[in-house]
Amino acid sequence: MVNFNNRTSNGMKKIVTHSGNFHTDEVFACAVLSILHDGNVEIARSREREVWVTGDYVVDVGGVYDAEVGRFDHHQEGGAGRRENGIPYSSLGLVWKHYGGQLCGSTEAARRIDEKLVQPVDAGDNGISLFTLTSLKIFPSLLHHTVTAFRPTWKEENIHKISFDAGFAQAMEVAKKIISREIIIACDQLEGEAIVSEIYHKSEDKRIIVIDGQHPWEWILTQYLEPLYVVKPDHENGGRWKVKAVRKNVDSFESRKLLPLAWAGKRDEELVAITGVLDARFCHNLRFIAGANNKEGALKLARIAVAA
Question: What is the pTM of this model?
Answer without folding.
Answer: 0.88
